[in-house]
């Protein structure tokens, strides 16, 4: 074939490709709405939003509730903005950092989930509820940094189903021990993971996938029982100060070489 013939064939091929492309674009513009939605980029769902079916199932199995009242939610947000209280809470978490990391590693749970729950519970704890006479009065049902109750010790098999008064008193003292309380929280998260059918060996990471984020939101919901709680916990897990508190390492100062 001559040079002129090859050029004609090439030009015809290019024109044919352009015509096919234009025809494809025109047909795409006339696609039905359902096809257009399929072609649209995937929008990540909010892991803290539970469907009515999910809520019903969790309520039946675990006895969870709806969200706090709006007034209570406003009060919670206001407390989060109070810097002196936040500083005090962070200082308490700093003291608990070694046990948080140790027990999270032991129970294969995300240390930021443990930290976020502790931050929320400490931040919003009621004044005086940790006084010994209040603890043993029975007026409050949850105790310690993670706000755990006698029922959790029963769930974990550390107390019989019908504990005696002496066993209850001893259990309350245990719950008021901060390090023991953190260990019980990590064990509770591990227990709930198992009950939800999640792998006990896999550490859930919210940023890794929607599935992990949804699992973390569910665990947070089951810990507290209030529907607005998972959103707060996931927000605290992304808090730069809390993240730095857990994962930063303080190195000893070295003497300069002279």
Describe the structure concisely for a colleague.
By secondary structure, the protein is mainly alpha-helical. The chain contains 13 helices and two strands; from the N terminus they run H-H-H-H-H-H-H-E-E-H-H-H-H-H-H.
State the main characteristics:
258 residues; two-stranded antiparallel ribbon; 13 helices; 2 strands
Secondary structure: elements and pairs:
Layout (H helix, E strand, L loop, with lengths): L2 H27 L3 H7 L12 H11 L7 H11 L2 H25 L3 H13 L8 H4 L6 E2 L4 E2 H6 L9 H11 L2 H18 L14 H15 L4 H9 L2 H8 L11
Antiparallel strand pairs: 1-2
Tell me about this structure:
The chain has 258 residues and is an all-alpha fold. Among the domains are: 14-39, no CATH class; 52-124 and 179-247, no CATH class. 64% of the residues lie in helices and 2% in strands. The chain contains 13 helices and 2 strands. The protein has a two-stranded antiparallel sheet with strand order 1-2. Helix 6 (111-123) packs across helix 12 and helix 10 crosses helix 11. It is globular and about 50 Å long. Residues 6-43 have low confidence and may be disordered.
The biggest beta sheet is recorded as: 2 strands, antiparallel
Shape: globular
How many DSSP-defined strands? 2
Number of helices: 13
């Amino acid at each position: 074939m001559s040079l002129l013939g090859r050029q004609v064939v090439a030009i015809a091929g290019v024109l044919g490709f352009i015509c096919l492309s234009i025809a494809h674009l025109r047909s795409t513009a006339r696609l039905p709405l359902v096809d257009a939605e399929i072609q649209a980029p995937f929008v990540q769902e909010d892991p803290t939003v539970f469907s009515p079916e999910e809520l019903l199932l969790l309520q039946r199995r675990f006895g969870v509730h709806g969200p706090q009242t709006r007034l209570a939610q406003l009060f919670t947000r206001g407390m989060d903005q109070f810097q002196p209280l936040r500083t005090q809470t962070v200082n308490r978490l700093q003291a608990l950092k070694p046990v948080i990391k140790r027990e999270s590693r032991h129970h294969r749970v995300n240390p930021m989930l443990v930290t976020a729950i502790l931050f929320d519970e400490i931040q919003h704890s009621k004044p005086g509820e940790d006084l010994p006479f209040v603890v043993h009065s029975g007026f409050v049902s949850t105790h310690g940094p993670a706000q755990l109750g006698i029922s959790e010790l029963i769930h974990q098999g550390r107390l019989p189903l019908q504990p005696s008064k002496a066993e209850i008193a001893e259990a309350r003292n245990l719950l008021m021990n901060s390090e023991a309380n953190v260990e019980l929280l990590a064990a509770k998260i591990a227990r709930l993971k198992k009950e939800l059918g999640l792998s006990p060996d896999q550490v859930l990471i919210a940023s890794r996938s929607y599935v992990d984020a949804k699992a973390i939101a569910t665990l947070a919901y089951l810990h507290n029982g209030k529907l607005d709680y998972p959103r707060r916990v996931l927000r605290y897990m992304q808090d730069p100060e809390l993240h730095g508190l857990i994962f930063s390492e303080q190195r000893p100062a070295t003497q300069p070489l002279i």
